[in-house]
Write the structure tokens for this entry.
Amino acid sequence: MRVRPHRRWLNSALCGLLLAATVSTPPSARANETAVKLYERGVELFEQKRYRTAIAIFKEAYSLDPAPSFKFNIARCHESLGEWNDALASYYDYLRISPNAPNRAEVETLVTRLKVKLTPTHSQVFVSTLPAVGVRILDAKTGKHLGTTPVPDLWLPFGRHVLSLNKDGFVPQQTIINSRSGSSPRVAFRLVAENAPGFVKLLQLPRGAKVVINERAVKTPGPSSGYSVPPGIAEVLVTYRGATFYQGRVRVGAGRTALVPLGRSLAMETRPTPGQPVSDGLGAGFWATLAVGVAGFVVAGGLYGAAHDKAAEARSYAASEDRERLVYEQLRSDAEGLHLGGSITIGLAAASSAAALVLGILAATEDSSSGAVEVGVSLSGASLGVSF
């Protein structure tokens, strides 16, 4: 059975508008007269089964006079075309605009029937925002307007969607939603006002450091706290023990936190007081590696000396008349082992000494502003040879 558009109820509503138009003809009334003509044209197209053209006519009429029944007739056209998702969306719009519609029970029955027919190509998405009213939801890829909060029923095709939320006076936001069968994603947003303050958070801020932001000294709250600043560019200056450790510009967004790492700056620019020995950091590393290197050279010298003695003993035993082959081989093997150990030890000692030299240069560079520390390492060695 063919169901006609909901003409009787719309006629009653539009007749009231026509009656008002006969009294005076302000622009809005003339627009309503045009809407009535478009409505009648839309009904004719519907009866001719030219549903696509009828939808365009009803939408044009709705733009002139947002009567709820136009949404109902648009839904009837989509349903006749088999476009269940669009029909369902239009029915929901109709019930939202006209919650006390006299044919609400009939529309709810149509909605139930459509949900049964609806193929599983869409999932319902629940979006809540703060502020709760007036936030526009757009498809970021296509720019299509999906609704304005509150949106009780938002259906998205299966797949990945990027939604954009916009409201005048607030910072736009975007989110990614994956629509899939059997799921009803729920997302909540708190939009931030364009003039809301942002925050600057200084990472690894030492105790006692002084912070100046936008030429105003601020109280140091601690290493884990942030500073409230107006959105825009913030000038940040950090001093510690009278020295400048960080100075730069940071972009801060409304309601957002800008992170400023200070660890590298502090490590590079911290300097000891005048006369203070280099006993920590690079200085401690210098003395430790230097001690290992010197100890290595001493051990290597001992091993080379022992190897030299064993080699001499082996040569002396080989020249004796009562020598035994096994004893000679053992002495020779001991000498070779001691010589190899000395070679390995002296290589490690040389590497340690080179590292100490590098650390000493770095430590001296660090101390250049308060009293230079000069480190000189002189290493000399003699090659020891063992012949058999």
